[in-house]
């Protein structure tokens, strides 16, 4: 009798370690949340940061810069009941579970992973997208034509790590130089020292004419006293009051 050959063991290809990602599947994750129904269309816009400059005589030139952040938009169906085509990681979840999850992503103010995994029916990977994003906004639509099911339009934006640099500035403060008081210069050695400012407290019955006559022996020099004390006397040199302290400058 012919010996029976043992069947050869079929080699298995390593599967991508994403929960729920089987053969011939199309799966979309928002962080750890698997959307139960795959969106029919996902739009990804890679924004441009290049700058076009017009030259005076040579037309235009394009300055190439790092691409801008990617915008992602899609609409997904959130069932209120379990359908054969809907996929759940563990067990069926009502729409409220997903709506609460979207709200948490919006309020957390933290970036999260957006993952799209697509495979051929034979299990071969078609493409795999993994971006760190932020949830910019989402819109919930309740349509009577869809029964109790909801449709949610979601807008995501790519998020890039960034940091700030701290710069320490050392400010050198110059110490103020001492002020040297200059002595009045006398014309000759025998010249008398100039008279310094004096003060006078106004008495009852005083006027600037009499005060000037007292200090200068000339009442017409009252204007010298008035100019030196405008801040005390005010706009009228004829109005002075007892108790006011006046500066009597030298003439």
From TrEMBL:
Pfam families: LysM. InterPro entries: Bact_Kbp, LysM, LysM_dom_sf. It comes from the Bacteria. This is LysM peptidoglycan-binding domain-containing protein. Residues 198-248 form the LysM domain. It comes from Maccoyibacter intestinihominis.
């Amino acid at each position: 009798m012919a010996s029976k050959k043992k069947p050869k063991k079929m080699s298995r290809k390593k599967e991508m370690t994403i929960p729920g990602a089987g053969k011939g599947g199309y799966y979309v994750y928002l962080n750890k949340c698997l959307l139960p129904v795959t969106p029919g269309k996902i739009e990804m816009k890679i924004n441009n940061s290049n700058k076009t400059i017009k030259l005076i005589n040579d037309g235009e030139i394009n300055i190439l810069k790092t691409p801008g952040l990617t915008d992602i938009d899609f609409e997904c169906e959130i069932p209120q009941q379990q359908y054969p085509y809907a996929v759940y990681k563990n067990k069926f979840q009502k729409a409220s579970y997903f709506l609460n999850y979207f709200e948490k992503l919006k309020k957390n103010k933290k970036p999260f992973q957006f993952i799209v995994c697509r495979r051929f029916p034979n299990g071969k990977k078609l493409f795999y997208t993994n971006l760190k994003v932020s949830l910019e906004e989402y819109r919930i639509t309740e349509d009577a034509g869809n029964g109790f099911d909801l449709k949610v339009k979601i807008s995501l934006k790519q998020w890039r790590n960034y940091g700030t640099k701290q710069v320490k500035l050392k400010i050198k403060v110059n110490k103020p130089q001492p002020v040297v008081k200059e002595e009045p210069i006398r014309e000759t050695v025998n010249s008398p020292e100039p008279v310094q400012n004096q003060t006078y407290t106004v008495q009852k019955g005083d006027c600037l004419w009499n005060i000037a006559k007292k200090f200068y022996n000339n009442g017409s020099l009252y204007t010298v006293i008035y100019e030196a004390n405008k801040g005390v006397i005010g706009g009228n040199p004829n109005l002075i009051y007892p108790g006011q302290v006046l500066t009597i400058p030298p003439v």
